[in-house]
Every structure is written in C-alpha cells, then in structure tokens.
Amino acid sequence: DDKAICLWRRADCERLEVVEEAHDAGVICMVVAGCGVWSSGYDGKVKEWTIFGPTRQCRREVQFPEPLRALCPVGEHVWVIGQSPNIAVYNSDMKQVDSLEGHASYVSSLILVDRVDTRLLWSCSLGDRSLRVWRSIVHDSGASVRELRAANQMFEEQQWGVNAKLALADEQVAKARGDLEAAGREFAARLQEALVRATGAEREKLRAEAAKLRATDMEALARRAEAEARKEAKAAVAEHLKAKEELVFHTAAVATAEAVAAEVRAANEELRQSVREAAEDLAAERGRGRELQQQVDVAKQRLDDAVEQGEAARQQLDSAAREAEAERAALQQQLGERVAELDTCRKELVVESRLRQEEAESNQRLRQDLEQQLAQATVQVSQVLQERDDTREAIKQLELRYTELDVFKLDVIARELKSIDQHIDRVRAEGKSLLEAAKKFTNYGDSNLAIKAANVFSDAAAALRGSVRDVIERCLSETQKLHVGMPMQDQHAAGDLKDGGRMAGYLVVETETPVGGAGKGGAHQTKARHSRQSDEVRRDTRKTPAGR
C-alpha cells in the first residue's frame, strides 16, 4: 500500500534497496519474467524492472484498463488475469499473443503445476465457482514424453471422474436438503393455517357466549317487567274490589234507610218532622250515594285504564318475550352453528395433528434415509479419495522412475555429444594437417585439389562442430555442462537450432537409499548421481590418451 518495492538479502534478511513510488497505487504482485521483474499495481499498470546494475530502473510499462490480480510466468510467456473472465498471454516483450476464455465470471487466481512434458496451470473463479486446468506444452522428447503424457491424461480423466462423482453427490445432498426445506415450509404453512382457524373459532365461541349472556340478561329484564306489570294490575284490581264493596255497603245502607222510612211513615205519620228529617237525611244520603257512585265510576274508569295499561304492558311484555325468544332461538342456532364449527375445527385439528405426526414420522424416515445416503456417499467419497491418493502415489512413483530414467539418458547423451565434439576436433586437426601438407606438394594441380578438399573438410567439420555445440548450448543444463566439461556460454555454437528444442529445466530426485554405505556423518547419496560420477570417471580414464 506504500507504492514502494523493496529488495532484501535472503541470507540475513537485510533490506538493500527501496524503489519509492514504483506505482501510483499499491503493488499487488511481482514475478520474474524474461530478463527482469514484472510488477502489477492497483493503478492498472504492469512495469518491467531491471535486475542488474546499481539501481532498479523501469524498462517499460503497459497500461491496462483494470488492475491485474495475478501474474504467472509459463516458459517464455506470462499469463495475466484481471476483472474479465479471460486469461491473457503476453510474451517477454509485453505484447499479447493469446487470450484464453474459460470462465463465466472474473478469474480469481492462477497456479502453475510443473510436469515432465507439460506445465499445468490451475485457475479458479469466485464469480462462477469453477476450477479449470490449463495445459502448456513445454517440449516434445519422443516416446518417453508420449508415455508420460498418456499417464497424465489418464490421471486427469480419473480426476474428472472423481470430480463428477463428487458433484453428483453434492447435487443429491442439495436436492435432499431442498426437499426437506420445502416439506418444512409446507408443514409450517399448514400449522399456521390451523392456528388461524383455531383462533377464529375461539373468537366466535367468545362472541356466542357474550350473546348468550346478553340474551339471559334481556330475559331476566323481561321477567322483572312482567312481574312489575302483574303487581300493578293486582293493585288496581284490589282497589276496584274495595270500591265495589264500599258501593255495596252504601247501597245496603240506602235500602235499610228506605225500609226504616217506610216503617216510620206507616207507623207514625205524626212523626212527619222526623220523616222530613229522615227524608232530608235520605236526600243527603242519596247525594252521598251519588257521590259514591261518581267515585265508583271514577274508580271503575281508573280500573279500566289500569286494565288497558296492564293489557298494553302485557302485550309489550308478550312482544318483548317473543322477540327475546326469537333472539334466544337465533342465538341458540348461532351457538349450535359455532359449536358445530368448533367440532369441525376440533376434528380438523385432530386430523392436522395426525397429519403433522405422520409428516414428522415421514420427515424422520426421510432424514434417516438421507443420513444413510449421506453416509454411503461419504464412504464412496472416502473410497474415491483413497483411490485418488493411491493413483497419485502410483503416478508419483512413475514420475520418479521416468525422471531418473530421463536424467540418466540426458547424462549419457551429454557424454556422447562431448565424445562426438572431441572426435570432430580431431577431424578438424587432421583437416588442418592435410591443408598444411597439401601446401607442400610439388605438383600445383595436386596441391590445389588437396587444398580445396582440406578446406571443404575443415568447413564441414567446423559446421558439424557448431551444430553439436549448439545442441549442447541449447538443450543441456548448467549442471550437465559442468559434468561433461563444457562452457556455460559457448561462442562456437552455430546458433541455428530451431525454437522448441530447448529444455526448460530438469528435476533432481533425492532418495534416502545409501549407495556403498553411508558416508561421514551418515550422509546419503542418490543412486543416479553416484552412477553418473563413477561412470564419468571410468570414461575419462578410458578415453584419455596416455601421457596427457
């Protein structure tokens, strides 16, 4: 993030140099490519820096539309990835030579896998969740390379089969999980619906009970009103009977008075004054009788009014009772309907609980089946992984054997090339001797022909030596050149060897098998290295002329 590039000494971890402001933003990654070091930054630039010299200099740079996530050198090329789904291939001159399309989304990383005849690069993408393997052919070395290529292809096919089985197992597990989640969601929906129905039924039950209580209160109120009306009617009837008794009493009194007056008139007319007085008393009594009659009429009218009011009250009470009865019947009917609905809901709840229990049992059985299938899939995956590990171990052993075989062959070829080069040097020396001898011929024609033949012979030997030196220069490693006594950079090489024949590297496999016993300190040597050195000593001893 500080935009700088630091150089460190690996031996003592000392910082030797700091390149300030190497990029306009932070540095993402660095690789060794071509004749320098490539660096990628968040500013979207890729720069090439010099390795030798007192200071690091930027030789050239390329501006990209997006920052590059990773740089991976493959032979003479560099593979780069950014935000796009393509993998770009650049040469050592920072020129794009190819574009590989293998992912649906951006590529996240690259990794290089070295093989004997090929180099495999693994690329992954977090966007489309895929992993792809790319093969880059480094060289073609004949039958052994073809055999190794076939072995690599067999291993890749086995790996593809394992990946297919793993993908199928993952799909089955995902499908089972989806089915289980769908069943759980459906069961939750059914349970929620049953709870809603139960809540509605409970609410209707409460409403029916409240209506029943209101009907009971109205019925009690109607009964109290009817009792009060009957009480008032009874009081009015009692008053009417009392008034009637008073009227009968007064009527009897009038009759008695008239009888007494008749007896008085009949008995003693002399007593007219008394009769007049009695008549006056009778008139007074008659007046009082009329008043009593009027009072009786008023009481009768009041009684009739009370009876009418009682009848009206009775009719009202009857209508109220009928309405209350109708409302009670309606409420009873509603209550019956609610009870029926409650019974239906109870039955549905029982059925729902039974279904839920059956569904739980089914889910339990399904879970057990899924666990069994998952256990079987796990066992199969473990078996497949074991087979893969066994195959990898077998391929590794095969690679080690082929590596030892190739290293031995290359050493033999190197020694044979050195022997051919020595023979060519002797031939050149003989050609030079022939040329010097031809110059001493007395016959000019013979001398001219011999000189031409010696020149042609020397030129052919020189060209052949250049070709052999070119093969040694381009195809052998530095260690093999040191073993056969050849220079690291030969100026006598022809420089005409075609591209594609240069060996990119070699592999030295260390084994712990002691050859000829352990040396001092218990050190072990490899069988291939020991055989090469001993064979080289015997060859040099056998082919070195005496006295040299």
From TrEMBL:
Assigned keywords, A-Z: Coiled coil
Coiled coil residues, start to end: 166-401
Residues spanning the membrane: none
Segments of skewed composition (Basic and acidic residues): 532-548
Taxonomic source organism: Zooxanthella nutricula
The name this protein goes by in its record: Uncharacterized protein
Record has Coiled coil as a keyword: yes
Superkingdom field: Eukaryota
Region entry Disordered, spans: 513-548
